[in-house]
Specification:
Length: 443
């Protein structure tokens, strides 16, 4: 079960910050799921792309029953009633008009059809398996999009908070320089520099606000609802994010895309077997009962019943069967090459995910050191500024450095988290992480 960590509340801001915050998030904190696991589960269970493939799977299941029908007997009935003229001098001396009626019952029991039915059942079964894996493939893609949208909202909200805190700090510097100027021991240059930095911080806040709105729009597009009070997800490592070979072995055995491509090879192989069936003989047990009344120029009823073992073998039909068999063999090669392409794509994505995760983890430590140093520098510069030994420009520059350090540190944390989910997706473990089962539908 996943643990969740609440997003740290922002530092207390001024009245204007509270108004902006209310304007941003009013009306969006309603009954939307507030944790990532619940959000992913609910989106996938009702997503139209998933439902479409689930219905395709159900339709494919009927193909199995259709194919198995080839093992069962065929029973046909024919009934006829109408006028008949007989002008056969070996039977009658003159033309005879009569009302004729026929009734015929025919039964065909397939004993051997060249392996066609068995091959068609195999094709349908493999297609059903393929739809299973296609559901998981689509579900994993959708889940990763939902995760990206979820984390984007959390990230942009945190960056907005950082921007507002920075704006508040620059406003405080502006007021301090105004007081120094009014007191006669400040300079116009220092004050205007503070005004300029404050204005720039306001621009950054506006941009951050717009990014929050963009992220919320993206979330609504993926989830179908506005983001509420979201909680930060936490992933347990368990060595999953450090061993590429282990992850690649998992991907090879359980990545839904590779499983899907394997079933496509199985489908093509079964279709190749089915393509060869028309070139083999067919053996049926056929029974026929025919009852006629006033037929063929004779008065009265006639009955005919027969039961036979019937062999049919198409010896030549213009070479079409042989060409169909060649095409099926080529399709097997196509499916095998498609698997090879997918395998390379999965391996590439896994390597990129590992590379990105490692780089972000390395940078996270460096950026945290930078953040700690930026805070210490700002505190030291503020003390020195109060003593008059540090310029206003130095203090404003330190404040800007702190904003950049906080922004970069927050960004890399979200990058690491997404890279971990991306790695789970690349190794085929993402749906298991969220305990999602998409393959069973209620009738």
């Amino acid at each position: 079960m996943n643990k969740h960590i609440k997003v740290a509340p922002p530092r207390k801001l001024d009245r204007w910050s509270g108004i902006i915050g209310l304007a941003l998030f009013a009306g969006v904190c309603h009954a939307a799921p507030n944790d990532l696991k619940t959000t992913v589960q609910e989106v996938l269970q009702g997503h139209p792309e998933v439902r479409e493939i689930q219905e395709t799977w159900r339709a494919t299941q009927t193909e199995i029953a259709q194919a198995e029908g080839g093992k069962r007997p065929i029973i046909d009935f024919r009934g006829a009633y109408g006028g008949e003229r007989t002008d056969d001098r070996s039977i009658v001396s003159t033309s005879v008009d009569r009302v004729r009626s026929d009734a015929e019952l025919k039964l065909v029991l397939p004993l051997y059809d060249g392996g066609l039915t068995r091959a068609e059942v195999s094709v349908a079964n493999h297609r059903t398996d393929g739809d299973f894996h296609r559901i998981d493939t689509t579900g994993q893609v959708i889940a990763l999009r939902v995760i990206r949208a979820f984390l984007d909202v959390l990230q942009e909200r945190e960056l907005f908070t950082i921007a507002r805190q920075s704006e508040t700090a620059f406003d405080r510097h502006r007021q301090n320089e105004r007081s120094r100027l009014d007191g006669g021991f400040g300079s116009i240059a220092d004050f205007e520099q503070a005004v300029s930095r404050h204005a720039l911080s306001q621009v950054r806040t506006t941009d951050a606000q717009e990014q929050v709105e963009r992220a919320s729009t993206g979330y609504r597009s993926e989830v179908g609802d506005a983001p509420g009070d979201l909680t930060m997800p936490a992933l347990q490592d368990h060595g999953r994010f450090s061993d590429f070979n282990q992850a690649m072995a998992l991907a090879k055995s359980q990545h839904p895309l590779l499983r899907l491509q394997k079933t496509e090879i199985d489908v093509s192989s079964a279709e190749q077997t089915a393509a060869g069936a028309p070139m083999r003989p067919k053996l049926n047990l056929e029974a026929n009962v025919l009852a006629t009344n006033d037929a063929g120029g004779f008065n009265g009823k006639e009955y005919d019943a027969r039961m036979q073992m019937v062999v049919r073998w198409n010896l030549y039909n213009g070479g079409r069967d042989r060409q169909r068999l060649r095409k099926a063999a080529f399709n097997v090669d196509v499916a095998q090459q498609a698997y090879a392409v997918s395998y390379r794509a999965v391996e590439q994505e896994l390597r990129l995910a590992f590379s990105s995760l490692k780089a972000n983890q390395d940078n996270a430590n460096r950026l945290q050191k930078r953040l700690n140093s930026s805070r210490k520098v700002l505190d030291a510069y503020a003390s020195e500024r109060r003593l008059g030994s540090r310029s206003s420009l130095d203090l404003l520059t330190a404040e800007t450095d702190l904003f950049n350090a906080e922004t970069d540190a927050a960004t890399v944390r979200y990058n690491i988290l997404f890279d971990q989910y991306r790695l789970l997706a690349a190794s085929g473990q993402l749906l298991d992480e969220f305990s999602v089962e998409l393959q069973v539908l209620d009738d």
